Amino acid sequence: MAFVKISEQSSLYNDLEKKSVREILEDINTEDHKVADAVQKAIPAIDRLVTGIVERMKKGGRIFYIGAGTSGRLGVLDASEIPPTFGMDPSWVIGLIAGGDTALRNPVENAEDDTEQGWRDLQEYNINEKDTLIGIAASGTTPYVIGALRKARENGLLTAAITSNPDAPVSEVAEIPIEMIVGPEYVTGSSRMKSGTGQKMICNMITTSVMIKIGRVKGNKMVNMQLTNAKLVDRGSRMVSEELNLPYDEAKRLLLLHGSVKLAIDAYRSEH
Q1: What does the pLDDT look like over 48-62, one tens digit per residue?
Q2: How far apart are CA 41 and CA 45, in angstroms?
Q3: Of residues 132, 134, 135, 125, the one with CA closest to residue 155
Q4: 1 pLDDT above the threshold of 90
Q5: Which residues contact 7 (CB under 8 A, 6 or more apart)?
Q6: What is the pLDDT of residues 124-151, one digit of tens each?
Q7: What value does the mean pLDDT of the chain take?
Q8: Which is more confident, 271 or 150?
Q9: How far is CA 212 from CA 53, 93, 208, in A?
């Protein structure tokens, strides 16, 4: 049976330019409601992936995202949010995009069409069998991603693919296919819409649950977050104050002295 890209099928809506702004917004919101349901159906596969990642990270393994265009940008985005949120070194979760960092802002012609380049890009990080590679490709056909996943799997890495099409080529080369079927986009083929929204949700789910399971969250608090601005210093001070039942100013002093909520709490408790 021929592979059919649901994500490329014609929109369920027509004559968009004739609609009022309110109609357009209501229509897009109606379509967006479908995303969470599609992600929910993919939870068994996400569960399997997270469980495998946690086992590998405890042995020193890392997470790599790889993608092109919107998919690549979302992987880089999720990776970039891990250090400030969870206090992890940037080397633990890494996002790669076809065409390199230039492609984060500007399209790079033909970058996603090279089957070999993805694996070459990964080699710069001394990628090994402890690591996990997650390919993101709404279409499910991106050569850059497929080639990287195939080589990674051959070399013993845990591999997963996030796609918006069932039985996609990218699913065939990954050990764990995550198929999030959101249907045709509001603007035909514009995978920055529902597909991108679902990809962001899944990436959030993967890394947040991994960080919780490797001890980067306590209770429900980001106790390892980086104190990079006044808002986060205030948030951290309140966490320390609540946890240790200390006045705010004393909690803030401890926080700034030790550099993180966790270290401040641990140091206080070791002294009292």
Answers
A1: 999 999 999 999 999
A2: 9
A3: 132
A4: no
A5: 138, 139, 140, 164, 165, 182, 184, 185, 189, 191, 195
A6: 999 999 999 999 999 999 999 999 999 9
A7: 95
A8: 150
A9: 12, 14, 6
Looking at the chain, the whole-number percentage of residues with pLDDT higher than 70 is: 99
Q: Residue 269 CB: number of other CB atoms within 10 A? A: 10
Residues with active-site annotation? 81, 112
Q: Distance between CA atoms of 26 and 30, rounded to whole angstroms?
A: 6
- CA–CA separation, 26 and 215 (whole Å): 41
Q: Dump pLDDT digits (tens) for 5-16.
A: 999 999 999 999
Tokens of 195: 């597909």
Q: Which own/partner contact pairs does 210-217 have at CB distance under 8 Å and 24+ positions apart?
A: 210/50, 210/53, 210/54, 210/57, 210/63, 211/82, 211/85, 211/86, 211/88, 213/50, 213/54, 214/54, 214/57, 214/58, 216/86, 216/87, 216/88, 217/86
What is the rounded distance in angstroms from the CA atom of residue 34 to the CA atom of residue 40? 10
First to last CA, the chain: 69
Cα(191)–Cα(256) distance, integer angstroms: 43
Cβ(185)–Cβ(6) below 8 Å:
no
Of 263, 269, 272, 268, nearest to 223 by C-alpha is 263
Determine how many CB atoms are found less than 10 A away from the CB of residue 3.
12
How far is residue 61's CA from residue 46's CA, in Å, rounded to a whole number? 18
Rg (CA), the chain: 21
- Distance (Å, whole) CA 203 – CA 195: 12
Q: What does the chain come to in residues?
A: 272
Enter the DSSP assignment of 13.
Answer: -
- Tell me the two tokens of residue 113: 């069409």
